[in-house]
Amino acid sequence: MSAAPGYLIDVGPQRAPARIRSMQEHDLASVLAIEQAAYDFPWTLGIFRDCQRAGYGCWVLESGAEIAGYGVLSHAAGECHVLNVCIAPDHQGRGLGRRLMQRLIDLARWHRAERIFLEVRPSNPRAIALYHSLGFNEIGRRPRYYPAAQGREDALVMAQELLHDED
Fold first, then answer.
1. 95: closest CA among 65, 134, 125, 121?
2. In a domain, 90, yes or no
3. Would you say residue 115 lies in a domain?
4. Which of 35, 70, 119, 146 is an active site residue?
5. Catalytic residue at 70?
């Protein structure tokens, strides 16, 4: 549907200005604060540092002057794996998670990966819906993968086959 000249169509809330850049050492305090605010069983500072040392793609999403989210992507043997992706609770619902995930998918393509994987808690329906909308499909389950208040929680394993333009 197109609008007649001189008419505006309300397309809903505008996307928040955001920038995605490589995670730096000085970002880790903010990243850890987001991790601890978002998860009952957060990664430690040591895990984030280990990911950086291992050469994983560690990214932050800035909204205005603050870090609003981050993602960690590993790549090897023609595959990529989203190890962690998170938007700060007070920044959720603005499309930032979608933008960050789209960037991680683009990076997987840049690495010429054939597919990209991730795990998600079955108790996180918003994330599952986002991943489905981005083209991920459930391919399996990892029993007792995540720590949980009542013991352990399974993980849904999701994947997306990546298509590449022929050179």
1. 134
2. yes
3. yes
4. 119
5. no
Number of domains in the chain: 1
What CATH number should be reported for the domain holding residue 138?
3.40.630.30
Per-residue pLDDT reduced to its tens digit, 141-165? 999 999 999 899 999 999 999 987 6
What does the alpha-carbon distance between residue 40 and residue 163 come to, in Å, rounded to a whole number? Answer: 36
131, 138, 145, 166: the active-site residue: 131
Instruction: Spell out the residues 6+ positions from residue 64 whose beta carbon is closer than 8 angstroms to its own.
Output: 16, 17
Range of the domain at 52: 18-161
pLDDT tens sequence across 2-55: 333 333 333 334 455 789 999 999 999 999 999 999 999 999 999 999 999 999
Whether residue 167 lies inside any domain: the answer is no
Q: Is 119 a catalytic residue?
A: yes
